[in-house]
Amino acid sequence: MLTTETQEVQSTWLEAFLSDEQFWPIEPKTLGETGLAPTLVESLIVKHLAVAGNASGRRLAEQVCLPFRVLEDVFAILRNQQLIVHTGAAPFNDFYYNLTERGLQRARASQDACAYIGPAPVQLTDYIISVEAQCISLESPTDQRLADACADISVNDRLFDLIGPAVNSAAGMFLYGAAGNGKSTLARAITLCFGQEIWIPTTIVEDGQLIKLFDSTYHVPVQNDQMGVLKTKESDRRWVKIRRPTVTVGGELTMENLDLRHDPVANVSESPLQMKSNGGCLVVDDFGRQRINPTELLNRWIIPLEDRHDFLTLTTGKKIRVPFEQLIIFSTNLEPRDLVDEAFLRRIPYKIELADPTEKEFLSLFERYAVKLGFEYRSRAVEELLERHYRPQGRALRRCHPRDLLKQVRNYCLYKRIPLEMRSEYFDRVCESYFALLFGESLRPLTV
Asked: Most buried among 144, 236, 368, 413, by the most CB within 10 A?
């Protein structure tokens, strides 16, 4: 006969099997299931109470993102230690709590030791399991999914056939070509090829050290639904369901961004960029123009790219192994071979050039952006634009030109309070400033 514990385990596995989620953080039933030290949870509660002044047990449970039933024993311990006291009954068989003088001293000591006040952290081992269960290498995006992801940008069939295998490999790629041809836009769109949502913990704990992972700059939360078809299990609220992240960094990238950044005052560490991008894409934009030498940057990643894990150092000196599971895209308008040596190029097996658009693609981009910006598309106006501002000067077509020029025409029309129209004289006027400033060219004076 099965024990109650065995039945619960089998029930959990059944729910996971019937769920359409690759990973689902099940709400813990006991404090032991969290793997957290009771003293850590106690310190979070007294720090929250020090800020709130007075709060119910359920309110405190919401603050630390643990179930109320899990914390009832913790509240009892804090009462026995005379750190908190009841100040009245709260709804649903709960109480309101205040800190005692002794509890206030404990809260101040906890604050001095670590200023973090937020959801209870997740064990590093649990985070590693989650990344392995949700990594993009488990997926094999098809040509249709890639086409859907790139529906809003211009990508020809030849380029699709180059990008598709690179995306499926999850091994990283170089996107190179002239500025203005949509390398960064394409890199961001590629993330959409994969499953749209993953779970990440707000904060991670290892060796008593807290590491903040969730970053609203890169992580976009989505609505948490119940689990699968059974819908009987709540999710662990220490985890956040987000869109697969696309972390984009440019010239501001430094070596410090690639290691744990410790705040000695708060005694909390911030996770590096590659860790925040796990499960998604890391786009290094304008590669070769960072404040650090490209070789130095690539030497930092040469082993993680091959082994799919990275090593970080805690303030205690302990080295921890974390997943390195993202699609890294280096976007540059320089030749890859001019930036890095053969050893590194071998670890980034896909080098894809985004060439200038053909005239047919150029016209298609104008038509697409005209609709988006509220213009009636006029192919004749675009043809006259090519005749007057491209062909005579031998000017290269760039994928950003249709969008940029139409936006400037739109701004001109709004300023003049005239109808939005694609007219040659309007393009003449905006080309005078757009190309002269952007490319250092000067055009003859216009008489519009």
From this structure: 236
Q: Spell out a b/e string for 285-302, using b for 16 or more CB atoms within 10 Å of the CB, else e.
A: bbbbebeeebeebbeebb
Strands, E assignment, 13-103: 55-56, 84-90, 94-99
Please enumerate in sequence order all residues whose Cβ is within 8 A of that of 426, keeping only pairs 6 or more positions apart, or say none.
409, 412, 413
**Secondary structure of residue 236 in the 3-state scheme:** coil
DSSP state of 400: T
Cβ atoms of residues 341 and 330 within 8 Å? no
In whole angstroms, what is the distance from residue 260 CA to residue 263 CA? 10
Rounded distance between C-alpha atoms, residue 62 and residue 84, angstroms: 18
Residue 144 phi/psi, 5-degree rounding, is -70, -40
Q: Give 195: exposed, middle or buried? Use CB within 10 Å, 0-12, 13-18, 19+.
A: middle
Residue 310: count of CB within 10 angstroms of its CB: 22
For residue 146, the model assigns a pLDDT of: 81
- Alpha carbon separation from 242 to 100, 198, 217 (Å, rounded): 39, 6, 12
């993680």: which residue's tokens?
Answer: 304
The pLDDT, as a whole number, for residue 438 is: 47
Give yes or no for a contact between 247 and 354, defined as CB atoms under 8 angstroms apart. no
Q: 174 pairs with which residues across the strands?
A: 330, 351
Q: For the chain (length 448 residues), average pLDDT per consecutive 10?
A: 43 44 88 94 95 92 95 94 92 92 95 94 96 85 79 76 82 82 79 83 96 95 60 81 90 87 94 94 82 80 87 94 91 77 76 88 91 93 94 90 94 94 94 70 38
Cα distance between residue 327 and residue 135, in whole Å: 10
Distance, in Å, from the CA atom of 199 to the CA atom of 22, rounded to the nearest integer, reads 10
Amino acid identity for residue 356 in this structure: D
- pLDDT on residue 386: 94
State the Cα–Cα distance between residues 61 and 5, nearest whole angstrom: 25
Contacts of 17 (CB under 8 A, 6+ apart): none
Q: Which residue type is seen at 157?
A: D
Interatomic CA distance for residues 131 and 9, integer angstroms: 22
